[in-house]
Amino acid sequence: MLDPSLVEKLVVFQRNEITEHHVYRGLARLAEGQNAAVLERLAEEELGHYRSLASYTHREVKPRRWRIFLYRLAARVFGLTFAIKLMEAGERGAEGAYAEVAGKIPELERIMADETGHEASLVELIDEERLGYLSSMVLGVNDALVELTGALAGFTFALQSSRLVGLSGLITGVAASLSMAASEYLSAKSERGPKAPLRAALYTGVAYVFTVILLVFPFFLFSSPYAALGLALADALVVIAAFTFFMAVVRDLGYRRTLVEMVAISMGVALLSFLIGWLLRVALGIEA
Question: Which residue segments constitute the domains of the chain, with CATH numbers given?
Fold first, then answer.
């Protein structure tokens, strides 16, 4: 007879396993071909873990529906690999709890080995297009952040009108996005690598335009150009934080270090660009 407190811990583990089973089954329905097969294998493995634990607790537990929904939503928005690796990060956080009980329940040692080893090898089989074009997305987002934040700051002090700044930023951003997309197309075509030139250009252009819209929108919302600039810079930080989180998860990078690096580079270059523009306006006597 197991100790009641131990049974409760096993029930928590059970709930995690059955939740992950349903998550993988749901993700398999969103995938095709090899990806679907990989996810089905993961789902069956999690179901086997659940049944092994149930043999000790003699209970049937329900999955966490909200977690299933969130992981499926993440897969639709950011891709299958992102959702899977995000879930793996949560599993690594539960390894300590498993280790505490493993000495009392030998079956947990096998489950832990599966979670840390077998699943990792299966995830490597996931082949997803958007990850192959991650560098194109990074190029679009970073270039938009660096160029447009500096341009918007300069326009704000030069034009003193939210509408004019917003319109100027939008024109500048759209023109730059077309230029960046064309450059990425030519680059991918000349390299003759695995990336399709047209798709690489599309990823770059879409990422750039999305960032432009987010940064320019405040200038059509506020009458004060300075308030709009403050919100635009805050939006830039949000974009950096969100995109860094995505890259950190799918590339297994350290989030904090990568975030600090991206903020320093993007904001540093933007500030430097603004200062150069401001000095040139003063030197040429263009400022009022």
Answer: 4-127 (1.20.1260), 130-284 (no CATH)
Distance of alpha carbon 132 from alpha carbon 171, whole angstroms: 30
Query: Token digits for 234?
Result: 């805050």
- Reference 42, options 62, 64, 27; nearest CA is 27
Contact between residue 174 and residue 209 where contact means Cβ atoms under 8 Å apart: yes
Please list, in sequence order, all residues whose beta carbon lies within 8 angstroms of the beta carbon of residue 146, skipping any fewer than 6 positions away.
265, 266, 269, 270, 273
Cα separation values, 36 from 74, 82, 112, 126, Å? 17, 15, 24, 9
Q: Per residue in 207-265, pLDDT tens? A: 888 889 999 999 999 989 889 988 988 888 888 888 888 777 777 777 788 888 878 87
> Residue 217 corresponds to which tokens in the numbers above?
């929108």
Find out whether 135 and 207 touch, Cβ atoms under 8 Å.
Answer: no
Angle at Cα 206 formed by Cα 203 and Cα 207, nearest 5°? 80
What does the mean pLDDT of the chain come to?
79
CA 100 to chain centre: 32
Which DSSP helix (H) or strand (E) runs through 72? helix 65-78
State pTM to two decimals: 0.68
